[in-house]
Amino acid sequence: MLSKFMLSFNDPDLKEIYKREKVEFFNKVVPIIGAMMLFLAGTLEILYRVIELGTLPKYISLINWIFLLIIFIIGCLHRNMTWMHTIICPGLTALTFLYLSFVDYDYSMGSIYYSLIIGFTLNLFILVIFNEAWFISTLVYAPFLSYYMYKTGYDLLGSEVEELAMRCVFCILIYATIAY
Questions:
Q1: What are the backbone dihedrals phi and psi of residue 113, each rounded to the nearest 5 degrees, phi first?
Q2: How far apart are CA 180 and CA 174, in angstroms?
């Protein structure tokens, strides 16, 4: 029984079916991500550059538009280059932490707690939906989480580096376990 399963798992037809299903999934998802990214980048530009509701660093706008360009390129080329699917989860993870750490960070206790909950939930959701390369995703998640935890930990707790390191390791291990 087990040998039949192993033979069917290595069957080239099943691999082709998996590849086709994956391409069809990304055919539906990449335009949605692109539209959401365009809406987000456009809204930020209008709010901060046109209406002048505050200041937005130029590097945030640059990152938004570069990420939108990358999503557009993936949308055009992912049918022939399926390796591009592995870029989406790490890219969205990095973008999420960019917003949590710089755009939406206002140093208030309530905002920090809410952004922690939203950030962890959103990153796990992204991981579950776009888990194409668990190791790469974990390698991207680890430094961004460490920086965010350092930033929030410093604002909330002071300089308890050992405790912060233990919490980061715990969160990264949980993320890596889910990713794998």
A1: -65, -45
A2: 10
Checking if the pLDDT of 3 tops 60, the result is: no
The closest of 59, 126, 66, 75 to 96, measured between CA atoms, is: 126
Burial of 126 (0-12, 13-18, 19+ CB in 10 A): buried
130, pLDDT greater than 50: yes
In terms of phi and psi (left: phi > 0; alpha: psi -120 to 50; beta: otherwise), the region of 21 is alpha
Specify the pTM. 0.76
Do the Cβ atoms of 92 and 136 come closer than 8 Å?
no
Task: Report residue 159 as tokens.
Answer: 């300089």
Region 58-83: what's the mean pLDDT? 88
Q: CA–CA distance from 133 to each of 17, 33, 48, 163 (Å)?
A: 19, 18, 35, 29
Q: Which residues contact 175 (CB under 8 A, 6 or more apart)?
A: 123, 124, 127, 138, 141, 145
Q: How confident is the model at residue 2 (pLDDT cuts 50, 70, 90)?
A: very low
